[in-house]
Amino acid sequence: MLKAIIFDMDGVIINSEPQHHRAALRVFKRHNVPADAKYCASFIGSSTEKMSADAIERFSMPVTVEELLDEMNAEKKAVLEEEGYQILPGVTELIKNLYQHGYYLAIASSSSVSEIEHVAKTLGIKKYFKKLISSAKVNHPKPAPDTFLLALKELGVSAKESVVIEDSCFGCRAAKAAGITCVGYYNPDSGKQDLSTADVLLESFEGIDYRFFVNVHSRSTGQPVTIANTKRLLIRELAVDDIKDVYDIYKDPDVRKYIPDISEYLDVEMEKQAAYIRNVYSFYGYGSWGVFSKTTKKLIGKCGLENLSIDGKEEIALSYLLDSEHWGFGYALECCRAVFEFAKTQLDISRIVAVIDCENKRSIQTAKNLNMHMEKEIVYKGRTCFLFAISLS
Question: Fewer beta carbons within 10 Å, N or C terminal of the chain?
Fold first, then answer.
């Protein structure tokens, strides 16, 4: 169960990396050191102290690490006084949303404790964070896991109960080394960071809320994500253990009549579905989900969204099937309406289509009951079909 979200600060809460680079380059210029922006960028996610020590050794600077670090910090302060903090769009709203939903929040940064506290107070977000953690308190900064391990200890949570948000290669590596689910935040001002070790990448905080992190955490820990909880149904991502039950539904000739053939061999089908579960849900955020009866707790069908090329156009299509025992009781309407609601509120999808065989009167009526309108007749996979569509905007 997800309990805590740990934020990096520089490049995640504030867009400070360009300011840090400008400050460092001013200091290097005063010392006639030929360091450039690329050199500074190589330390993103690490600490100013580590960069200072490296610069002294690499460029034979006649100062101590403490002296250069003091000079760097003073110059950073001067730049910030000139420019102010540049908070990233949407991050304040996200922090408030996570706090309101009861999650423990921490900042775990390579900046000093005083810097972290000053940023949090200046931005008015300190009250939302349970702990403020600096790499200065550990022996080994990022990419070592020490900073995040300290954050876990201070928060009183385990790695399996947490998510880290990081914008740097070192930060992502540190999070994974600590055994924590990692969201890699792509910040173009953080340089060309290798975020490949992150579990998922995020390009903007705008429109993101706690549900995004619950889903990322669930997938990274092998737990199917719940999509909807309706009056009679639970709709969630399929797990490998569900595949045999899906296969049993496909065995019904009435179910197979209007859908593409499924493999006659269960082991082949299970292998295909296992690959689908591993790759599709996390990549698109949607797919074909399992429909479970709340009464029996059993799988009774599938529903969801898939990407299809239809009549020369890329579309997001509604798909569903139920075992024949559950036909005629409104279950199709119930699960499809839940899919539409999820698509609109969680995925920001504005148009959904459905390809329905012209002879499939039951599904045609369901589409009409969903307020989908018939756009045209098409030939799809060798069959004459109707293309229905609905606008969710």
Answer: C
Amino acid making up residue 369: N
Looking at this protein, which amino acid is placed at residue 203?
Answer: E
- From the list 70, 175, 61, 168, the residue with the least C-alpha distance to 112 is 70
Look-up of token digits 């210029």: 29
pTM: 0.72
Residue-wise pLDDT tens digits, 319-360: 999 999 999 999 999 999 999 999 998 888 999 999 999 999
Closest CA to 209 of 100, 97, 349, 345: 97
Buried b (16+ CB within 10 A) or exposed e, 347-366: eebeebbbbbbeebeebbeb
Tens digits of residue pLDDT in 251-297: 888 887 766 555 555 566 667 777 777 778 877 889 999 999 999 99
Three-state SS string over the chain comes to CCCEEEECCECCCECCHHHHHHHHHHHHHHCCCCCCHHHHHCCCCCCHHHHHHHHHHHCCCCCCHHHHHHHHHHHHHHHHHHHCCCECCCHHHHHHHHHHCCCEEEEEECCCHHHHHHHHHHCCCHHHCCEEEEHHHCCCCCCCCHHHHHHHHHHCCCHHHEEEEECCHHHHHHHHHCCCEEEEECCHHHCCCCCCCCCEEECCCCCCCHHHHHHHHHHHCCCCCEEEECCCEEEECCCHHHHHHHHHHHCCHHHHCCCCCCCCCHHHHHHHHHHHHHHHHHHHCCCEEEEEECCCCCEEEEEEEEEEEECCEEEEEEEEEECHHHCCCCHHHHHHHHHHHHHHHCCCCCEEEEEEECCCHHHHHHHHHCCCEEEEEEEECCEEEEEEEEECC
